[in-house]
Design brief:
The chain is α/β, with parallel strands linked by helices. The protein has a single domain (6-224), classed as TIM Barrel, CATH 3.20.20. The protein is 46% helix and 12% strand. The protein has helices spanning 23-35, 55-69, 84-97, 114-127, 147-153, 169-178, 192-198, 212-223, 227-244, 249-259, 276-289; strands at residues 6-9, 76-81, 101-106, 132-136, 159-164, 183-186, 202-205. Strands 1-7-6-5-4-3-2 form a seven-stranded parallel beta sheet. Helix 2 (55-69) runs parallel beside helix 3 and helix 7 (192-198) runs parallel beside helix 8. The longest helix is centred in the last third of the chain and has 18 residues, at 227-244. The two termini are 34 Å apart.
Length: 293
């Protein structure tokens, strides 16, 4: 049984105007995040713009992340497809590249029934020898995981985690009650401290890329049971989520990292970069958050 826990930033995918993954920039970001104390790295999450990258670009992102991590922290690589066979191939490839776990994401164009959704995730878990985390985000996905499907999938020996981004903390409690062996990662939109209080093991989120030190501090306060201090820090950090909810998430994180000196490039078109006023708002919030702790 693996023991993934703590703060796992959803890494951006640095890319230039010609579509080349900037592996040196990604490597520096990953190393700096590890030095800041994060507990793991998640390439090809939502912030990593997985839906906008081709196969070669995705593999370059995973390879660079694994190399930068150097086994100092685990790497959980995102696998996403509308086709089961393609998802299986991705998962096998990322395991060969050295990923320590898989974050399984279902992209769907046509609606799917529960049995079809379950078979997709089960096929990914059958194809690898490393732990699998389920990912569900009904805001962006056409097909969601029901509680019954989650309960059945939790019986698979390699499906050990779930990151639920539904913003429904009651649903997380239901998952914990029905699947005691499944460990729950929060989305930042859940307010991670609240999820830690009810039994979560950490969170996977894009904003942790730009506030890693404060995110780790929040996790440590939760683990120590210092809830008043944790909630004070959580309220301050929530300003980032409030601001980013108004803009494109990848554009916000990339703008924040550019402000911090990382040449990560712009969001992949047709997404757009932040405008001057939006960028100024991000810069102001980062300046305030930098003073925390």
């Amino acid at each position: 049984m693996s023991n993934f826990h703590g703060v796992f930033p959803y890494l951006v995918s640095p890319i230039d105007a010609q579509g080349k993954i900037l592996t040196d920039v990604l490597g520096k970001l990953a190393s700096d995040l590890i030095k800041a104390g994060v507990h793991g790295l998640t390439p090809l999450g939502s912030t990593g713009e997985f839906a906008y990258l081709n196969r070669a670009q995705r593999e370059a992102v995973v390879r660079a992340t694994v190399e930068a991590a150097g086994k100092r922290v685990p790497v959980i690589a995102g696998v996403a497809s509308t086709v089961t066979a393609d998802a299986i191939e991705q998962a096998k490839t990322y395991q060969k590249l050295g990923a320590d776990g898989i974050l399984a994401i279902l992209e769907a164009y046509f609606p799917l029934k529960d049995a079809q959704i379950e078979s997709y995730f089960r096929a990914i878990a059958d194809a690898v020898d490393i732990p699998v985390a389920l990912y569900t985000n009904p805001q962006f996905q056409r097909s969601d995981l029901s509680l019954d499907v989650i309960a059945r999938l939790s019986e698979h020996p390699r499906i050990q985690y779930i990151k639920d981004a539904s913003t429904n903390t009651g649903r997380l409690l239901s998952i914990m009650n029905r699947t005691p062996r499944m460990k729950v990662f929060s989305a930042s939109a859940h307010i991670p401290a609240a999820v830690m209080l009810i039994g979560g093991v950490g969170w996977m989120a894009g904003p942790a890329c730009i506030v890693p030190r404060q995110s780790v501090q929040l996790y440590d306060l939760c683990r120590a049971g210092k809830w008043p201090e944790a909630m004070r820090l959580q309220r301050d950090l929530w300003r980032i989520n409030e601001a980013f909810a108004r803009f494109n998430l990848a554009a916000c994180i990339k703008a924040g990292l550019q402000i911090q000196g990382y040449a990560v490039g712009e969001p992949v078109p047709p997404q757009g970069a932040l405008g001057p006023a939006e960028r100024e708002a991000v810069e102001s919030i980062l300046a305030d958050v930098a003073k925390l702790g």
